[in-house]
Design goal:
Strand content: 15-25%
Bound molecules: L-homoserine
Radius of gyration: 24 Å
Number of domains: 3
Order of helices and strands: EHEHEHEHEHEHHHHEHEEEEHEHEEEHE
Number of helices: 13
């Protein structure tokens, strides 16, 4: 490839992101050519069918299979926008790297599961594997970690990495609605997928966190190391209690250095209303990084959508056109350390607990005793006698009836708290399963 010759790209997948990329290249092709010193030429496309949104936007040569496009002598860069962590996406990306083609992908699931293997293949073949669009859509966090923050030791990377769940939690908080009702409405409006599992159960955010942790801490991407909890169990009662106590509840993804390892988790988390992340609402994403020299930086923006994601894909293609290269996860793959599964038993922090306590003499005293036995100090205890009729609050009434009690603990270890809650349940003072939400100081 000579510097002034076009960079020839092959695009596999012409759905939302692929058609966004075609629009971007059509509108900004000349300006990009000037910035790169060479044009970007679409040398081939393929998609599931010619009915895909982008198929009618280009007259580029059509390929029947992604694997065929991936190894075509007519392309320099294979742009994988199909999705999926196996099958055609995995096979075609491997084939492209093996054939000495650069790869640009938006596929977080693929990289979270096979990132180390694919990065090694890219290195062996001296080609790029770029994935800015795989984490938080239009937010340039991959480049920020790969380039701008390299002078720092990163101690924590965290954020709101799933727009669908953030939209649902925002509506629940503002309108006091239960999870199921907001989800059904979001599905009817097309905001949430018919199968919302990956969004609301945390896998999508965990895929992204896996990549952030690899970049921030020099570890091999390991999706299985992330502790995962989704948002289905959060109730309007939790939002109301959080609001009264000065907190918001978000599905937070956090990877932080801890002891000799890394704790990575995606879970509903309470954070002070005053923190910057607490006001990131609706479908917006945000990513924050704590670095030893830079301090805290926070990037907020659209985490999905045709144009923002295309913007990220284009930046990766432009990097290749300009000859900017480096190992996909900053360090050579052989130097990436392995990352073991996060052990939440050893997590330390404050906790929110909501119990439905049988309202009878000695109940609170017995609960406090179980907490004290585990050396857990309580910051606040609120018995909601006048609790509203909200799901999760129960219906207080006569002595003996279940009454909501909300507690905030001082910093404690999670195994001690779980032991205390087990004893409290066994003692028979509470109805149902206690609600427990970690509090994160941000
Ligand atoms: N479904 C994701 C979200 C976007 O709701 O944020 C793609 O990862």
């Amino acid at each position: 490839m000579k510097a002034h010759e076009p960079l020839r790209i092959g695009i596999a997948g012409l759905g939302t992101v692929g058609s966004g990329l075609l629009h971007l290249l059509a509108g900004h092709g000349e300006a990009i050519a000037e910035k790169c010193g060479r044009p970007i030429a679409i040398a081939g496309v393929c998609a599931k069918s010619r009915e895909e949104p982008g198929a009618k936007l280009t007259g580029a040569p059509w390929f029947d299979s992604p694997a065929g496009l991936a190894v075509s002598a007519d392309i320099d860069v294979f742009v994988e926008l199909m999705g999926g962590d196996k099958g055609p996406a995995l096979e075609s990306v491997k084939a492209a790297l093996g054939a000495g083609k650069h790869v640009v992908t938006a596929n977080k699931a693929l990289l979270a599961k096979h990132g180390a293997e694919l990065a090694a293949l890219a290195e062996e073949n001296c080609v790029s594997l770029n994935f800015e669009a795989a984490v938080a859509g239009g937010i340039p966090i991959v480049k920020t970690l790969r380039e701008s923050l390299l002078g720092n030791t990163v101690t924590r990377v965290y954020g709101i990495l799933n727009g669908t769940s953030n939209y649902i939690l925002t509506r629940m908080q503002r309108e006091g609605l239960p999870f199921g009702e907001v989800l059904a409405e979001a599905q009817a409006l097309g905001y949430a997928e018919a199968d919302p599992t990956f969004d609301v159960d945390g896998q999508d955010a965990a895929h992204k966190l896996t990549l952030l942790a690899a970049l921030a801490f020099g570890v091999r991407p390991n999706f299985d190391a992330v502790h995962l909890e989704g948002i289905r169990g959060i109730t309007p009662a939790d939002f109301q209690a959080a609001d009264e106590l000065g907190y918001r509840i978000k599905l937070l993804a956090v990877a932080a250095k801890k002891g000799g390892g890394i704790e990575a988790r995606v879970s509903p988390t309470m954070m002070p209303k005053s923190s910057a992340l607490a006001s990131v609402d609706g479908v917006l994403n945000c990513v924050a990084v704590d670095g030893d020299f830079v301090g805290q930086i926070i990037l907020v923006g659209p985490g999905a959508g045709s144009r923002p994601t295309a913007s990220a894909v284009a930046s990766d293609i432009i990097d290749i056109a300009r000859g900017h290269m480096g190992p996909p996860f900053i360090l050579p793959t052989a130097k990436l350390e392995s990352q073991s599964r996060s052990q939440m038993q050893t997590h330390e922090g404050g906790y929110y607990i909501r119990l439905s306590v049988y309202d009878r003499p000695g109940a609170i005293a017995a609960i406090a005793t179980r907490m004290a036995e585990q050396r857990i100090s309580l910051e606040s205890v609120v018995q909601k006698r006048d609790a509203p009729d909200l799901p999760g609050f129960g219906r207080p009434g006569q002595e003996g009836d279940p009454t909501p009690v909300v507690m905030i603990t001082h910093r404690t270890r999670e195994d001690q708290l779980r032991n205390a809650l087990d004893s409290i349940v066994k003692d028979g003072h509470v109805q149902g399963v206690p609600q427990m939400i970690r509090i994160e100081a941000l």
